[in-house]
Amino acid sequence: xxxxxxxxxxxxxxxxxxxxxxxxxxxxxxxxxxxxxxxxxxxxxxxxxxxxxxxxxxxxxxxxxxxxxxxxxxxxxxxxxxxxxxxxxxxxxxxxxxxxxxxxxxxx
Length: 108
Fold this sequence. Notes:
cytoplasm; minor groove of adenine-thymine-rich DNA binding; H-NS_C_dom_sf; bent DNA binding; mainly alpha; elongated; 2 strands; two-stranded antiparallel sheet; transcription cis-regulatory region binding; 5 helices
């Protein structure tokens, strides 16, 4: 199926390019699925599991993303307000420093 692109106008060319890119993405996804199936079949045929070969890397990434850090500093005026020492300093922390307190005074 040959397309004579010289006879296409700007909109038709954009439409053709868009359709070609969509089809290219579909073919890539299909190829990835087939390759994944081959890999899993090969691993299973050898008597191993995916985790035996590649470890638990997927689980470790998802667990690490949701962890919380223990607080290092507490607001003396409101003990429920804490800060882990990571990220932007909270307003109460900056206000306490301006009032003459030191970081070690706010430490838990």
